[in-house]
Amino acid sequence: MTETCPPRRRWRLPQGAAPxxxxxxxxxxxxxxFYLFIGWTFAISLTDSRLLPNWEFIGLEQYRRLFAxxxxxxxxxxxxxxxxxxxxxxxxxxxxxxxxIDRGVRAExxxxxxxxxxxxxxxxxxxxxxxxxxNPGLGIQxxxxxxxxxxxxxxxxxxxxxxxxxVALAGIWQQVGLCxxxxxxxxxxxxxNIWKAARVDGIPTWRVYLDIVTPMLKATxxxxxxxxxSLAVKSFDLVVALTGGGPGFxxxxxxxxxxxxxxxxxxxxxxxxxxxxxxxxxAAVVAPYLYLQNRRGAA
Amino acid sequence: MxxxxxxxxxxxPALAAALACWLxxxxxxxxxxxxxxxxxxxxxxxxESAALSVIRDAFLARGGAWRDxxxxxxxxxxxxxxxxxxxxxPPAVFLFSLxxxxxxxxxxxxxxxxxxxxAAWDAVLPPMVxxxxxxxxxxxxxxxxxxxxxxxxxNPAVLREAGVEVPRTWPEFVEAGRKIKAAGKVxxxxxxxPWQERILFNAxxxxxxxxxxxxxxxxxxxxxxxxxxxxxxxxxxxSELRGFVDEGSPGRRWNQATAMLMRGQAAFQFMGDWAKGxxxxxxxxxxxxxxxxxxxxxxxxxxxxxDAWAYTNSDDPGTRAGQRLxxxxxxxxxxxxxxxxxxxxIPVRTDVAPDGFDACARHAMEVxxxxxxxxxxxxxxxxxxxxxxxxxxxxxxxxxxxxxxxxQGRALFRDSVLAFQ
Lengths: 299, 421
Fold this sequence. Notes:
The complex is a heterodimer. Chain A has 13 helices and no strands. In chain A, helix 3 (about 70-100) packs antiparallel against helix 10, helix 4 runs antiparallel to helix 7 (about 165-190) and helix 12 (about 255-265) runs antiparallel to helix 13. Chain A has one domain (about 70-300): MetI-like (MetI-like fold, Orthogonal Bundle). Chain A starts with 16 loop residues before the first helix and ends with a helix. Chain A has helices at about 15-45, 60-70, 70-100, 110-115, 125-135, 140-145, 165-190, 190-200, 205-215, 220-235, 235-240, 255-265, 270-299. In chain B, strands 1, 2, 3, 6, 11 and 12 form a six-stranded mixed β-sheet that branches. In chain B, strands 8-9-7-10 form a four-stranded mixed β-sheet. By secondary structure, chain B is of the alpha/beta class. Chain B has 19 helices and twelve strands. In chain B, helix 9 crosses helix 10. The model of chain B is unreliable at about 1-30 (pLDDT under 50). The two termini of chain B are about 25 Å apart. Chain B folds into three domains: about 15-145 and about 305-370, 3-Layer(aba) Sandwich (D-Maltodextrin-Binding Protein, domain 2), CATH 3.40.190.10; about 150-190 and about 250-295, 3-Layer(aba) Sandwich (D-Maltodextrin-Binding Protein, domain 2), CATH 3.40.190; about 195-245 and about 385-420, D-Maltodextrin-Binding Protein, domain 2 (3-Layer(aba) Sandwich), CATH 3.40.190. The interface of A and B includes residues 40 and 68 of A.
C-alpha cells in the first residue's frame, strides 16, 4: 500500500537494503538448519557414535565400514537405476502427455485432472496401492490368470532382481502429472507465430516438436530434472511402503539404509557417514549441471 | 550438542519440595503416595494389552497411580523413550528390549538401577536373562516375559492329509516338506521380512549345529565356527527350504502367515510363541487344532527373547516410590503367572507353577528347568546393533537370492560379520 505512505520521509534505507533485511531470517534458517547440521553430521560421521552421539574421533573408519557393506553398494546401485528410470520415465512420458494434450484433445480438463490426481497422494498411499496391484496373489497377475491366461507371470514385486523396477514404476505413475503440467505450461508459452511460420514452411509437426520446440523448452527440462532428481534421492517412503526394501534388501535405497542404521540399529556414526556420502553424490551430479546452466545463462 | 547427564534436577519452589517430603513422610507409614507413574510401552495388541492390564490392575489395587503412554510398535516405542529421556522429560518406567542398546543407555547413566529389592532375582531368573538385565553387576531392567523364538507351529490336519509325521530333524523336515508340496499345500508359511527369515535360519542353525555351536556363532562370533562345515550344512538345509514357501511370501506379516496355517493352506510356521495370541483369538487352541513343537533339532534348547521394564532417574520421592511399587508388582509371582498366560509367553521367574498355562507353554516351562537348554536370540547376546543387523542382512540376502550357493552364503555371513565388527 505505497500510496498511503506519507509524502515526506525522514530517512530512507540505502538502495537494496530492504530486500537484504527481508532475507535475513531465511538466510539464518538456511545457515542453521542446513549448513550447521551438515557440518554436525559430517563431524558425527568421524566418531564412533552408536546409539547416542559421542565425540571420540576415529577418522574415516565409519566410511571404511560403509563401503565394506554389500548392502550399501546395493542401495547405491539401486539409487542409480531408480534415478535414471524415474527421471527418464517421468520426463519422456510427461512430455508426451503434454504434447498430446497441447494438440487440442477434447475434454482437456478431464485428462489433466486424471494425470494430476496421483500427485495429490502421498508416496505411502501410492506404495500401498501398487503393492496390492503387484502382489502376485491379489493383483494384476491374479486378475489376468483369472481371465484364462494361466501361464501369465508378473511377479516383479517379489523377485529380488526386479523389485527396484516396481518402485520406479510406482514413482513414475505418481510424478508424471507434475512433469506434464510443467511441460504443458512451457508449450503454452511458445509463441504461436513459430507454429505459423513452420506451417508456412511445410515442416512436419513432429519435426517442429523435436527440433524447434524441445530446444526452446530447455529451461523447463532443467527444472523438471532437478525437481525429479531431488525426489529420487530422498525417496524413502515409497520404497518403505511398496517393498519394505525387500525381498531381502534388494530394493533398498540409501535414504532407507541411513534411517535404519540411525534409528533401529544404533549406528549413528555409520548412518551419518551414509548421509554425507549421499550429499556428496548429489553435489557431484548437480554441481556440474548448475555450473553449465549458469555459464550458458551468462554467455 | 548433547552431553550425557543424569536426569535434570527438578526446578520447583522450595515449598513444593517440602510438601513432597512431608507427603512421602506421611505416606511412608502406610503406603506409597499416589504420584502417577508414567509407563511407556508398546503392548497394544489384544493379548498384549490384556497382559498389561494384569500389571496395571495389581498396581492400582496396591495404591499406585498409573499414567499410560502407549506407542504402537516396538522400535517406535523404543525411539520415543530415548527421545523423551534425551529431551529431559523421561517416562518413569518404559518397556525396552534387553541387549546392547539398553547397555549403552545404562553406560551413559540414562537409566536407573532397578529400584526396590532385587537381591532374590539371581536365584529365580534364568542366568542368561539375569546377565542381560544387568549393567556392571546391578540390575537395570526388570524382565517382563520370556518368549521363545524356536517354535514350529503346524496344522495337524494338513500333515495327516500329506501322510507325514511331525519331523524331528532337519533332513526329516526336508523329506516331509516335499510330500506336503506334492500334496498341493505350502510347506512353510513364511512372512518374508528379514527378522522372520532370521527366526527360520536360527532354527536351522540350532537344529543342525546344536547348542554349543549356536553359542559359538552368536555369543562369541567365533570365526572358526562361522567357517566350519557345520555352517555349510546349515546353509545347505536353508537353501533346500527356499522352495517350500509360496510366491507371496516377501513382505508378508507374520500374522498373515499364521492365518495361512490356520486356514489349512500351509503346514508349518516357524515363529515365536506370540503367534499363540492370534491362534487363540481365532478360537483355536494351541497344542490341539494348531500343534506346537520345538523346531527340529538334535538337542533341545529354548531361544529366549526378553523385553524388560527399565526405569529413569528421578529426584522426586513420589515417583521413586511409584517405581518401587511397580517393580514389586511386575515381579510378583501371581502377576507373572496371570500376565504370561495372556501374553502367550512364560514367566521370567522359574519358581512360578505351570498350572493354568497352555500345553505349549507348560512344555517350555518344563524344558527350561535345565539351564543347559537356555539360549537367547541374537540381540540378547549384547551384539552391537550394527552387527546383528548385518547378520540379518546376510541371512535375508541368501534366502532371497536363489542363485547363491551354500558356500557363497557362508562367505557372505562371515564377511558381513567381520565388516561390521
